[in-house]
Structure formats: C-alpha cells, structure tokens
From TrEMBL:
Protein name: Site-specific recombinase XerD
Gene Ontology molecular function, alphabetical: DNA binding
GO BP: DNA integration; DNA recombination
Source organism of the structure: Granulicella rosea
Domain Tyr recombinase: 184-382
Length: 414
C-alpha cells in the first residue's frame, strides 16, 4: 500500500522522529513560491511512539502548513532566512521607535555585522554556539561598545522571531558578553595640557579648539558652523546642521544636538576678529574659492576650497601633530570632550554639565537623570573658559609655554 501524503508522514532517523509534509515555500533564489517538502523535528523516539509522532505532526501542519502566502510572501519555518526576517519582520517594527539618523546607524551595524554574515542562513539553523562564536570573533576587531550593541541586536532579533512564532525556542537567550572585549579609551588630560596645546596654535586653530574645549562640541557640530550661526548680541552659537561622512545633514546625533549654545564673551569677540581677518585674507587672494566670510552662509572654519573641513583630516594633521610635539598620551576630539566632561564637574552642577554636553540622556553623562538649567550652562562654559585662560597665563609667566609653531597656512586642511 502506498504512502499517503495527505497529512504528511513520519520517519525515524537515528534517535528522533521527523515529520514531513508538502507545502508552498519561497525559493530564495527567485523569491517566488514553489512546491517543497517541509521538515519538522517531532521529538525523541524514547519520548513518543510513532502514532504520537503522527499526532504531533498533524498539529504542526495545522500551525504551519495552513498559513497562506501574504503580499510580501512571508513564510514560517524551514524557509525564512535571517536576512529576510530582519528586513521584513524586525526592522519594520523597530524603525518606528528610532529617529531617522539613529535608524541609519543601527541598520548599518546590523547589516555589516549580522546580515552580511548570516543573511542566507535559515532561522531554524541557528544555535547558541554559532551566535556566541560570531560575537567572540567580533570582540577581537570591534570596539567594546559595538560588540555590546551587536549582542543586544542579536538577542532582540531572535526574541522577536520567537514572539512572532517563527522559532519555537530562542537560541540567543543565554548569549554571553565576550570576556575579551577591547579596553575603552579613558584618556583624560589636565588643564595645563589643554592650555599648552592652545598655546601652540595660530589664531584660527586656537579659536577653533577653544570653542571645542569650552563647549565640548562634537566635531560634526564644530566644523558645520556658518557665520549665520554666530549671534553676537546673544553671545552664542546656534547648531543648525552637522557633518556626517563628508556630507552636511540638517539634524544632529541626538534630539538635543540642534540647539543654541552659549559661548564666552572673549570667544565671541575672537570670532568677530577672526571673521575680519578671514575677509582680509580672502580679498587678497587672486583665485577665490567658496563664499567670502562676510557672507552669512560661509563656514567659520573653511578648508582651502571654501567648504567645510574634514574632521578626520584635521585630527590627523593638527591634533596628532600637537600630541607628538607636546608629549601628550593622546589628543582627539573625543579625548577633549571626555576631558571637559571630567574637569567640568568642579565648574558646574551635574545638570549644567549635561546641558553643556547636549546629551539626550543625563545617564550618558553621570547615570543620574536631572533637568538642564540654561543659566547654569552659561556659567559653566564661562568658568571653563576662565580656567583655560588663567592656566595659559600661569604657564606663560613660568616660561613653560613655547611660542606658536603652527601658522594659519600650515594648519589649513582640505
């Protein structure tokens, strides 16, 4: 008597019962439905008889086999790949909770570290070993924060797969954080080291870094400033756009990024003087590039072509050179920002420092939530500026300051 496939069939393979039934599945190569045999692991032979295995298979067919194809041709079990699930079932749910700029970063990380590696792997083929070894591998080349992010994404993706009944069990539920995570840079400089760095710079770069130091600006914010952002009467700068991967974008890293930041009165006066000097230099050039400084749309700190400077190039050409000349352990925009966040604790309250740093969550600054107080923020900024100025004068009086070695032309970067 021939085998009836009306309700599927069961077979014993090794120590387990396997169930099979026919259904329409998606061909990964063509994204079109095709007839296929679906396989389901029913259980161990020691736990059930053949008739019990048949009964369980009927239940699986009722749960899986009768689910119709919908508009996006989603399928359940045995055919859904990791890449398909992330694209069609995970991201659409999460994107509503992410800001546009945040979504771009998160999707890039998920694509680069997960989908590119596992995109064609079927969901049911994942186990803890596969995921843990991949995470351990990433820990050797990726930063600590990135590995922790990827671990969180893995757990969230597979938890969602279980919630949506694509998997019966979560293979990532006990995924551990690798023990060999790369150490996070904790370099913090002193007031004297910051002042010594400023003393080595010419007018443009001294103003640029003073702004960065007194306001803990991100390089994406600092290099995007145009003259229209400088409000002389209000003694402030307004962040209206930022730089990201060589492009100007009309949004910032966090919700609090695009805002008005108070600056020290001396720095505001320096900016006015710098604009005048820049205009004089622009007028003397035979070949003029970009907008003249008198134009409100011109950048505060343009490159040779009149466009915005590349933060990475500036870091290598100016900051790294300064670190070498002064014997500093490290000098980057991140180090400056971390240093100011640390030193500023004695110059203002926790909430003032959060406001100055423009963190969306105070936990990013101190792990304790407080509301921002604008008046205190300005006082903190002024206090930091006075500390830098005072330290520069003290070092100068002691003869510890070397004369500026980096001129305007030498510091120009593309």
């Amino acid at each position: 008597m021939g085998t009836s496939y009306q309700k599927g069939w069961v077979r014993l393979r090794g120590k387990k019962w396997y169930g099979y039934f026919r259904r329409m599945e998606i061909d990964p190569s063509t994204s079109e439905p095709k007839p296929a045999v679906a396989q389901v692991i029913l259980g161990f032979k020691s736990e059930m008889s053949k008739s019990q295995a048949r009964e369980k298979l009927e239940g699986e067919i009722a749960k899986l086999g009768k689910q119709p194809l919908n508009g996006d041709k989603s399928m359940v079990n045995g055919v859904v790949t990791f890449g398909w699930f992330v694209l069609h079932r995970y991201l659409p749910l999460k994107e509503a909770d992410w800001r546009d700029e945040t979504a771009k970063v998160k999707k890039h990380l998920i694509q680069a570290d997960l989908v590119d590696e596992f995109g064609d792997v079927r969901l049911e083929n994942f186990d803890k070993f596969t995921l843990q070894t991949h995470l351990n591998k990433l820990a050797k080349t990726r930063s600590r924060d990135r590995v922790l992010q990827i671990r969180a994404y893995i757990k969230a993706i597979f938890a969602e797969a279980v919630d949506q009944d694509f998997l019966p069990k979560d293979p990532a539920r006990t995924l551990k954080t690798p023990a060999n995570l790369r150490e996070t840079d904790k370099t913090v400089l002193s007031w004297e080291q910051l002042a010594a760095a400023l003393a080595r710079l010419g007018l443009r770069d001294r103003i640029l870094l003073k702004l960065d130091m007194t306001n803990a600006l991100r390089p994406s914010e600092l290099f995007a400033f145009r003259w229209k952002c400088h409000r002389v009467e209000a003694v402030s700068l307004t962040i209206v756009e930022t730089i990201y991967k060589g492009k100007i974008r009309p949004y910032g890293k966090t919700k609090g990024s695009l805002t008005e930041v108070p600056i020290a009165k001396d720095l505001s006066d320096d900016l006015v003087a710098w604009r005048q000097v820049s205009q004089e230099q622009y007028d003397k050039k035979k070949k003029k590039h970009g907008l003249p400084p008198e134009d409100a749309e011109a950048f505060l700190f343009p490159n040779r072509d009149g466009s915005f400077m590349d933060p990475s190039n500036y870091r290598k050409r100016v900051l790294h050179k300064l670190a070498t000349e002064l014997g500093l352990p490290k000098l980057t925009f991140q180090v400056i920002r971390r240093t100011i966040a640390t030193l500023a604790q004695k110059k203002g309250t926790v909430k003032d420092v959060q406001g100055m740093m423009r963190h969306s969550r105070v936990a990013t600054t101190t792990d304790v939530y407080m509301q921002e107080m604008p008046e205190g923020v300005r006082a903190t900024v002024d206090s930091i500026h006075r500390e830098l100025q005072g330290t520069m004068k003290k070092l100068g009086a002691k003869g510890k300051m070397r004369p500026p070695a980096i001129t305007e032309s030498a510091a120009m970067v593309h």
